[in-house]
Specification:
alpha+beta; two-stranded antiparallel ribbon; about 35% helix
Length: about 110
Amino acid sequence: MRYINKKLTFENVSIENIARKYGTPTYCYSYNKIRENIKNFKKNFNSFSPLICFAIKSNCNVNLIREIKNFVINGSDVSLPVMGTFVVKDLKIEVWRDYFDLSSYQRQLAQAGL
């Protein structure tokens, strides 16, 4: 976020315009910043070869999840298919579980040379 001509903006779009169009509260995500953070994390912890996971229950925005589930490692596209399931009781989520195919992810990492 930054000011342009004394107006607060996000990714060069006026916050006022976003609020007017979508109402408040509105949650804005920077896909570029998320990708940059993932890239910096991988670079700084490269010697550990970290497994990077995203807790869907921390933010279940489908569009955000769709964007970050695919990324590039060593020039290869890597995708981590994820499924979330939950149990509803008395109109409240009682249990939430995330599932992903670790062997599929490990296979893709091996193909990427990791």
